[in-house]
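Hi V.,

Quick status before I head out on leave. The structure for the redesign project is tokenized and pasted below; the design run finished overnight.
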């Protein structure tokens, strides 16, 4: 019963183990046959009974080991391996003193001792077993022919033991190599599993962040506009101003339709529907007009102007979408929080970059108080705009600067490199 050998070892290891067990069985059978032919019954019964008992003990251990190697849920005999080897060895010692034919079982036993026992214990045990074989051969030879110890009685067991040790050590080296490969393969599978899980988690977090940005910059702002326009229409109806109420309801319908289109394109992962048939400059100009209308519905006199500088060039979809979303988020903050009377969106095309500045003359704030993440989120879930904007710009290797102070208005400046934008997307 060789300890620790896993299922799926190299073929050569399985072959060596099979040869070991077959060799033990053949030597035991030959010894029993010689005893049976040499000693008449009942004098030969005791060695035969002991040999049968040895065969049963040996077979039990090997069968239990094999069953456990194929199914680890079955009984594990490895903790009892030394006791099993002790029983085999004791039976063998009794047999070698009863008949010299059993001394040759020492050679497969050398392998068992080397693998079941630690090496520092196995080598002295093998040496002791070799000495016992020599003594047993001398004892039986002296009793049979009246002769003393002869050289072949010493050289045979000694060379056999040496061969067994060398072969056993080579087997052990092969086994350790196979075991290390098995452990390395298991570690590789475990590492791949952990990497797959981490990549899945990272992808989930990235997708969650993308969803948060898209929802904040499109659907959330559209719903906020619908709520404000609905309240304005309700107030106009209460005052009997059906013309204004109708205009506000028309804006609600337009905003809801735009939100529906955004949601559909968002699910398909396409660009903003506002950019499908209109240029970025046209979309920003329309956004300024819409911002004025929404501010007027709220009762604020906000004037919003769009300026274009430089010669426009065609931008990749991620650039156009990021700049449009940045303008939407910034202008939403202007008419909701800034209490401004004027807002200006400037889109500039330069040689190496495209820039967009959003200026307002509102109450301003302290940018350093917002922190690196873009400011703390409020309990209602708002306050996410600057953080979302920073993430969008950073993903395109751009820069985002915010200049503001209490009472001095705010400027949001975005710079995106045009050199990178010309690379294949």
């Amino acid at each position: 019963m060789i300890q620790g050998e896993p299922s799926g070892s190299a073929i050569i290891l399985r072959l060596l183990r099979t040869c070991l067990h077959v060799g033990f069985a053949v030597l035991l059978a030959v010894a029993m046959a010689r005893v049976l032919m040499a000693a008449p019954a009942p004098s030969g019964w005791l060695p035969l009974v002991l040999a049968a008992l040895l065969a049963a003990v040996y077979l039990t251990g090997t069968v239990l080991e094999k069953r456990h190697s194929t199914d680890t849920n079955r009984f594990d005999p490895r903790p009892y391996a030394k006791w099993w080897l002790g029983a085999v060895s004791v039976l063998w010692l009794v047999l070698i003193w009863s008949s010299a034919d059993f001394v040759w079982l020492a050679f497969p036993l050398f392998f068992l001792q080397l693998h079941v026992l630690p090496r520092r214990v196995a080598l002295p045990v093998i040496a002791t077993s070799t000495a016992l074989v020599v003594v047993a051969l001398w004892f039986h030879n002296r009793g049979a022919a009246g002769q003393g110890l002869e050289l072949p009685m010493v050289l045979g067991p000694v060379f056999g033991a040496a061969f067994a040790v060398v072969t056993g050590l080579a087997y052990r080296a092969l086994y350790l190599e196979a075991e290390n490969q098995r452990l390395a393969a298991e570690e590789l599978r475990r590492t791949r599993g952990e990497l797959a899980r981490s990549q899945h988690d990272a992808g989930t977090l990235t997708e969650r962040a993308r969803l948060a940005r898209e929802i904040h910059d499109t659907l959330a702002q559209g719903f906020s506009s619908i709520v404000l326009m609905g309240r304005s229409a309700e107030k106009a109806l209460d005052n009997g101003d059906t013309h204004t109420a109708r205009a506000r309801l028309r804006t609600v319908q337009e905003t809801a339709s735009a939100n529906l289109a955004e949601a559909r394109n968002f699910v398909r992962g396409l660009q903003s529907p506002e950019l499908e048939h209109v240029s970025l400059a046209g979309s920003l100009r329309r956004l300024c007009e819409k911002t004025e209308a929404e501010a007027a519905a709220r009762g604020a006199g906000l004037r919003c102007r769009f300026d274009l500088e430089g010669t426009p060039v065609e931008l990749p979809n991620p650039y156009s979408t990021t700049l449009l979303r940045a303008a939407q988020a910034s202008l939403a903050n202007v008419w909701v929080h800034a209490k401004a009377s004027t807002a200006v969106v400037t889109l500039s095309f330069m040689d190496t970059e495209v820039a967009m500045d959003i200026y307002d003359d509102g109450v301003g704030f302290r940018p350093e108080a917002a922190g690196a993440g873009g400011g703390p989120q409020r309990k209602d879930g708002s306050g996410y705009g600057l953080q979302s904007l920073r993430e969008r710009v950073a993903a395109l290797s751009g820069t985002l600067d915010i200049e503001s102070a209490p009472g001095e208005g705010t400027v949001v400046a975005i710079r995106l490199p045009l050199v990178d934008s010309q690379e294949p997307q």
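Above is the designed sequence. Residues 1-9, 371-382, 420-425 have pLDDT under 50 and may be disordered.

G. will cover questions while I'm gone.

Best,
W.
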